[in-house]
Amino acid sequence: MSRTADEAAVEAANTAFYEAMETGDFEGVSALWLDDGATPITCVHPGWPVLTGRGEVLRSYALIMANTEYIQFFLTDLKISLAGNTAVVTCTENILSGGPPEDGAELGPLVGQLVVATNVFRHTSDGWRIWSHHASPVLADTDDTEETGDPGDDEPRPDQA
Amino acid sequence: MSRTADEAAVEAANTAFYEAMETGDFEGVSALWLDDGATPITCVHPGWPVLTGRGEVLRSYALIMANTEYIQFFLTDLKISLAGNTAVVTCTENILSGGPPEDGAELGPLVGQLVVATNVFRHTSDGWRIWSHHASPVLADTDDTEETGDPGDDEPRPDQA
């Protein structure tokens, strides 16, 4: 495949990952994670510690889906860096989500969240599969970073963020 | 190199990265980032948006070093997942840091911080180099996750963390 076709395939796998989350498709999410019997997978949800291996990672998705009535991802700033059989995808996940309704309410409260993700994909005979997912909340004010990419002096130091 | 020698080399590169940060060695940090002229690098500091490319990434380290008088990383939970010329390293960065002294004080205030990182390394003719670094604060109570890796029901949902 040409580099462009590879990039399109990686982007399609990345999109499929978020769509499976949106539709609560646990089997779909499971199928997208690398399962080659040799390469351990890792996953960090926003604010969580590192989860390692299929058991831990897939349990976390089952837990998230059980507690999420509604979730939608608006992906922006998607960038793909390809080398050999590996791709590093970064994107901003603009998340709108809600939990199950409580106390007889019709809908649970909706929450908006700004999260950035680094998703590492590995090419297999079945296509591109997720090797590592690391998502984290954006806490700093990014207003002046979007154009220059240079965090201003008035932003918190990362070691104090 | 055998798989074990590769893992040792990846771990050495990972250690060198944090030691260069500790000693404020900007040239050392710069040299450890992948610079093959073809593969864009990406970096996420805790709470920050994604930084892409050598210019943005290295400027962020210059900024951090300029605002950090003292920083020490105690790495725990280090795990390496290797496939071909790529390695995914996860670790917990137990960080102790302090900024420049203010108002005539001898030392700035020290801050402890619990951060998890996913570091992606690429093998080059010069050794293993950092392709992607994503670090994020651990916000959830991890007391009951260390043994089972299974976040309890009483923890915040990742989409609300």
TrEMBL record, chains A, B:
Gene3D superfamilies in the cross-refs: 3.10.450.50
Source organism phylogeny: Bacteria, Bacillati, Actinomycetota, Actinomycetes, Kitasatosporales
Disordered as annotated region, ranges: 139-161
One Pfam family matching this protein: SnoaL_3
InterPro entries tied to this protein: NTF2-like_dom_sf (IPR032710), SnoaL-like (IPR037401)
Acidic residues composition-biased segments: 141-153
Sequence ranges assigned to domain SnoaL-like in this UniProt record: 10-138
Name of the protein this chain belongs to: Alternative dihydrofolate reductase 3
